[in-house]
Fold this protein.
Amino acid sequence: MTRTVVVSGGGTGIGYAVAERFAADGDQVILVGRREDVLTEAARKIGDQASHVVADLTEIEGAERVAKHAADHHGTVDVIVANAGGNIGIQAPEQVPEGLAGVSWLWTENLRLNVITAVHLVEGLKPHIADDGRILLFSSIAAYRGSGSGSYAASKAALHPYAIDLSTELGPRGITANVIAPGYIQDTEFFGAGISEQRRAWNIDLTHSKRPGTPADIAALAHWLAAPEGGNVTAQIIQSNGGALAGR
């Protein structure tokens, strides 16, 4: 059965890998993001099974645009992948004000990037989600071990109880809601221009598997959680970090 899958942050990295994995099964994917050129190219590479919506999910209007596109073109949505997010302190360090104003700005912006984007997408699409649907939110290993400034880690951790509440609300319809919490994943835009080889080696050394995670690793996990076989897994935070959190 062909499903409709909405993927925010679907133009690059983990989001693109997730969309590509679902499309490989014949599903229709809707890529959501803020950059028209990136989404157009991603949809072109995936092919006829992909469409895209340019939307800023920190704003209500962005979520409404996605919901209208999904309803007009597909009627219902089967899988919601709320992958959009990031750490504003890494993405735009030059914008951080000084002092308390900077602390407030970091917390506010990271909550907008990681919590509000997910809430707007899910709540906007909730009236259109089909029975036995799937909701996937994206956290981080930082939610367990901190992120330095506190704001990024806290914003990711906030998604954990949200998934539990979604599962409670929608579970009677066969809808599951889970969170994927990756560790270090290479080949994404999370670190902007990239990280030093020393930092990369440090991240890898923390793992038991002694390799970085990849977008394909997360895509495979997301695909299984969204499959019928994953129907009894809900209200869970599933980690994918090569053992890095457990330590040695």
